[in-house]
Amino acid sequence: MKNIAIFASGSGSDMQSVIDGVKAGQIDGKVKLVITNKTGIFAIERAAKENITCKTFTLKEYGSHEVRDMAVLKELKENNIDLIVLAGYLSIVTPVIINEYERKIINIHPSLIPRHCGVGYYGIKVHESVIKSGDKESGATVHFVDSGADTGEIIEQVKVKVLSDDTPESLQKRVLEKEHVLLPNVVAKLCREEIK
Fold first, then answer.
1. Would you call 65 a catalytic residue per the annotation?
2. Where does 110-168 show beta strands of DSSP type E?
3. pLDDT tens column, 73-82
4. How much is the pTM?
5. CA nearest 124: which of 105, 141, 111?
6. Which of the residues 65, 109, 116, 127 is marked catalytic?
7. Sheet containing 105-109: which strands, arranged edge to edge?
8. CA 111 to CA 137: how far, in whole Å?
9. 33-65: per-residue pLDDT in tens?
10. How far apart are alpha carbons 105 and 146 in whole angstroms?
11. What is the CA radius of gyration of the chain?
12. For the chain, which terminal residue's Cβ has fewer other Cβ atoms within 10 angstroms, N or C?
């Protein structure tokens, strides 16, 4: 059984999909830790409701991404974390953590990488970019995290048709529904060591 840490910066709906996957027996793991970079977000309330330890590390508190990640890494080690899931985590993860958890950190991104990804592409901005581009399909991607922005090896993708009357919000809603299936599926495979 793998010990999982989930990093979140918002409502935590992708995080919840992994927690629900564990509770349903789909994932042979335990969500042992939630890490956030913001106070007052719904992900913190979700963690409390599920009795999962949640720690917040703000950039303001630590002064730099590297110093903050040294504190985060200490927390990860103390909790014997095997797998890190970035689920709507809107902050840089530095080599301080990446080098310790090579191929053990995954991220979910709301587009078909390599389209509409990289620095500045997050949240509704991704879906605005998709609609503006005229793309006929979008989707979600789970990938390994490396030192670049959305540049790590792709693990799995799921496609979503872009409808002629889509708004960024309507597209976001449909992509999110797919994310909530894709992410726990990939986490389950990683816990079973089906993905190397």
1. no
2. 137-144, 154-161
3. 999 999 999 9
4. 0.96
5. 111
6. 109
7. 53-56, 29-36, 2-8, 83-86, 105-109, 137-144, 154-161
8. 9
9. 999 999 999 999 999 999 999 999 999 999 999
10. 8
11. 16
12. C
